[in-house]
Amino acid sequence: MNFSSVYIEDEIAETERVIDILARVGDIPRIRIERYGEIFNRAGQNFRLQKQAPALILAKKHGKKVLPAPEGYGFEQGSGFYFSHMLNCLYDCRYCFLQGMYRSAHYILFTNYEDFMHDILGQSAQAAGNVFYSGYDCDSLAMEPVSGFCNSFIPFFANRPEMTLEIRTKSTQVRKLLEFDPLPNCVVAMSFTPEAAAKRWEHRVPAITKRLLAMRKLQQAGWPVAIRFEPVIAEPEVENNYARLFQQVFSTLNGELMHSVSLGEFRLPTDFHKKMVKLYPEEGLLARETICSDGMVSLAGGGAEMMQAIESRLLTHVDSSRYYRCA
Q: Which pTM does this prediction carry?
């Protein structure tokens, strides 16, 4: 992975983790800053242009580090929590809400992992929900060779079997996970769309076959794996496309050993959608007729009937006890 430059907050510049990370990113310009917001939040940035040559920002996360999962997110259906050691994603999926959320396409890596762990422990002690999701504001594994996320968080959760971690990803970077003994309380969840959708909208994402092979290695090693079929995007051949994808997935992975499987339709907050349309005015997906409800945008032609048809096909491959619909 290549970065145009690396910004380092003064407060963490001399910490062991940051020194290790800088050794991994190679010989690129290094700029010291006081706070990441002076780069990431400044006005007049163009997400689309920055995405062509993003920088890496090494920062310390202040304030709340563990938040309630959005309603309907994850297999706990909103009763869990999420944490983001990174903001933004190495991949460039045209449907991704991050393009509408942030002004900047630079990657922020928060390096104070121990503070995240402290807050996870505190949240676990306060609430009944003991499921923690990583991968909401980033791809959890895509930057693993730089971030060292697994080296820190896998041992942490290994010592706390009462907690569950879900690592959400599209990455094939599973080598580090395979160096550990599998954890029954760590679920690796991979997101998939059909081949046609992936080629059209998922730029820089590894091929479906490569990601399935990575998941098979994990499953054969004993790791709990999960599949997230999302976002489901309405198009003329959507049912047949998903039927082919289901066949491909469940001929590679053992559905009976799957932790969970989900479907989720394409939806965006209205404000995010407006920003994305401005960023990519030529993108047909974002120019399509939409339906607005409760501050969310979905595509005309989708909805309950489409989702039920796809769901029926999915449930021929996996038991309903392992399935949920993502809101």
A: 0.94
Name beta bridge partners: 264.
326
Any domain includes 1:
no
3-class DSSP state for residue 92? strand
CA-to-CA separations, 157 to 9, 47, 165, in angstroms, rounded: 28, 35, 7
DSSP state of 56: E
Q: Considering only CA atoms, which of 7, 45, 49 is closest in space to residue 28?
A: 7
Cβ atoms of 6 and 28 within 8 Å: the answer is yes
The string of pLDDT tens digits covering residues 66-84 is 999 887 777 765 568 999 9
Indicate the number of domains in the chain. 1
Query: What is the sign, positive or negative, of the torsion defined by CA atoms of 273, 140, 4, 201?
Result: negative
Q: What gap in Å lies between CA 108 and CA 55, rounded to an integer?
A: 9
Distance, CA of 175 to CA of 145 (rounded, Å): 10
